[in-house]
Amino acid sequence: MIILTAAALGVSAGQTRSAGVIALVAALIGMTFALAAITSPGPVSILAFVYAVLGYNGGLMLFVLGLYANQRLRRAMRVTH
């Protein structure tokens, strides 16, 4: 579930097409994990953080690949006279 949520964040941040927003969301993922680790009464799994980062990056890559595929399909559908 962590990977899917992070991937959704990556796609959503990519849709803004703003480098600042993409970096801010990435920083907020790290800050949220740090805050959860500080306030947690028990041990914290660093693996969950790794999954979140990988999911976020994967979501960004999926968005970029979708843009690329969309552009290729539009070129293919163009009718030349």
TrEMBL record:
Keywords attached to this Swiss-Prot or TrEMBL record, sorted alphabetically, are:
Membrane, Transmembrane, Transmembrane helix
Q: Which residues cross the membrane?
A: 21-40, 46-68
Query: Does Transmembrane helix appear among the keywords?
Result: yes
Which domain of life does this protein belong to? Bacteria
Q: What is this protein called?
A: Integral membrane protein
Q: Name the species this protein comes from.
A: Rhizobium leguminosarum
